[in-house]
Amino acid sequence: MANSNWRVSVSEDPQDIARLVGVDRADLERSPFQRAQWLETWFGAFAQPAEARVFAASIENAETGEPVFVLPLRVESRGGIVRLEAWDGGVSDYNAPVLSKSFAPSADDMRHLWSDLLGALPRADVIELEKVPSIVGSIGNPLLEVDGVVTSRFTRHPLPLPQDGDFEALRAARFDPSHRRSLAKKRRKLQNKGRLEFALLGGVDALPTLDLILGWRGERFGEKNQPEEMRRVDAFYRALCGHTDIARVGRLTLDGRIIAGCFGTLTEGTFQLLAVAHDGAFKNWSPGLLAIESSIALMCAQGVTVYDFTIGDEPYKLDFGVDNEKLYALRAGLTWKGCLYLRSRTAFRRLRDWWRERRAKGAATPTPVEPAGEAEAA
C-alpha cells in the first residue's frame, strides 16, 4: 500500500484538466513541453479526435488536496492495441509529469502510487511514454523508479550558454573549428551580396515568417511525413506562436528578403529549437545554420542559460558543440495482449536492425515484416 501522505486521482473532465495543467504555480516544476501555455495549446490542437480520450492522472497531498504530481495522458487505439500515451502527437520533445518540489517519495512508495494510478486509469493494453527526461526543472523524475523504464532511442542536445554572455568565447570553445570557419566564410559571402540581418520575433508579428519556415520544411520533408499529421503539427505551431508568449521565430534576411528562419520556445531562461528551414535558392550558403548561429548569439546577449537543440540526431548539432543527454522510455504491458505486442515489437526491431546492418554490408536478406500495430515503429 502506498504512503498515506498521498492519494491518486484521474480526471477526464476538461475543466478539471485545465485546473491541473493550466497554471504555472511557483511550487511546480515542469519541462518546457509541460508548461501551462504549451499544454493548453496542445489540448486545443490535439484533443479533438473522437478515437483519443484525454486524461490528467494526479497524485495529491492527502491532507491539503493539492496536486504534487500531474501526468497528462491520452488513451488511443491503433492496430488493435489500446495504449496509454503522453500528450505528444509528435510535437513534445520531452514528456514528463508536472511535479511539486515537496514531492519526494521513496522508490517503493512511487511504485505503489504508480500501480494505483494505472488501476484508476481506463483499461489499456500498454503504457508507452517516450522521451522522458531524468530531471524535471531542478528535481529528479520519480517516473524513473517504476517498472518498465529503459533508455530511449531519443537523445537531448543542450548547449550551455556562458553566464557572462560572451558568444565569441562560446563559439571558440564549443563549435567545431571547421564548422566555425565554414559559417564565417558563408556569412561573409552573403554580406558581400547585400545587407544581412537577423531578428527574433514573437506573437502574431512572427506568423508570416513562421509560415515560410513551415512551408520550406514541408517541401523538404513532405514525402517522409503523412500530410494530415504535418498539417496538425503546423497548426499547433501557428497556435503556439499566435496565442502564447513563449514562442520565438528567428528571421534571417538579405536586403529585406527572408532567406531562412528558426522556430522554438523560450521558457525559464532556456530556448528550445523546434524547427529550422531556408529558401532553397540560397542553400549553398547554409542560411538555416547561419540563422541558428545568429539566434545563439542573440540568446547569449539576452542572458539565456541553455540553447536546447532538443531531440533528433542531425550531425549539424554536434558541430555546434552540444552535449548529449540520455532520455528514457517507459513501456509496460498491462494485459497479456499488450505484453505479447511489446515482446513481438522488440523482436521485430532487433530483426530490423540486423537486416539494416546486413543490407549496409551488401548481403541479400529478406525484408522483415512488421508485427500487428507496428506502423509507427519504423
Report on the structure:
This protein has 378 residues and is α+β, with helices and mostly antiparallel strands. It has two domains: 6-155 and 326-333, Aminopeptidase (3-Layer(aba) Sandwich), CATH 3.40.630; 159-308, Aminopeptidase (3-Layer(aba) Sandwich). The chain contains ten helices and 17 strands. It has helices spanning 14-21, 36-46, 107-120, 167-174, 177-193, 207-221, 227-243, 287-301, 315-319, 336-360, and strands spanning 6-11, 28-29, 52-61, 67-78, 81-86, 98-100, 126-132, 135-136, 139-140, 149-156, 158-160, 196-201, 247-254, 257-267, 270-278, 306-308, 325-333. The strands form three sheets. Strands 1, 2, 3, 4, 5, 6, 7, 10 and 17 form a nine-stranded mixed sheet that branches. A hairpin with a 2-residue loop joins strand 8 and strand 9. The radius of gyration is 22 Å and the shape is globular. The model is unreliable at 374-378 (pLDDT under 50).
